[in-house]
Amino acid sequence: RDPTDNGCDTVVEVTSFQEPFQIATMSNYLSVKEIDQYRNDGYLIIRSVYNNEELMSIRKVIEDSIQNGRWEKSSYHHQHITTDIYNVYPELIEFLYNEKYLLSMKELIGEKCVLIPEPAIHRNRYFQWHKDSAYLEQINERFHYNNNFDVAQTAIYFQDNDPVYGGGLTVIPGSTDYIDKSGRIPNMNLLERGWLKLLKIL
Known about the structure:
alpha+beta; five-stranded antiparallel sheet; 7 helices; 5 strands; globular
């Protein structure tokens, strides 16, 4: 991370997968412990998927797009988010979906994994903790809790945690297994918020 970037927080968010990618298979890319953590806790941090040169190249494409107007060419965008990145930023595809990324997804999801084309780039965007599946629960859907529902939301994070420049994502282990009530937070009183915070800590 460039310490002169004034805390630029950039995340590329994509959703994966179940029609195979054409890539040579390498067995045991992830350890059994890592796969077990993903299954038990609902998340896994995979480090060193990209080298420093690749990360800086990706960030340059994103930062340049702020200046040249490409950021605003997606069908949905505002100051902190832009979407439809496969069409607007086709050069990122080769960077993002390298062998390490694809092998990781195959070992977590299965050989016949597919990509759901719903990516977004988040920049300097900060908001409350939430689950992306909350809207399903609000309409009384529960299919995403079935054991055979294998979908992974992947976030590619471009900044180290830093006490001065910020950064960082909060993940609650096992939160994939219970209904998200965080969407009600703005309408909660202090007692309800305190109780919810206690439940998350426990």
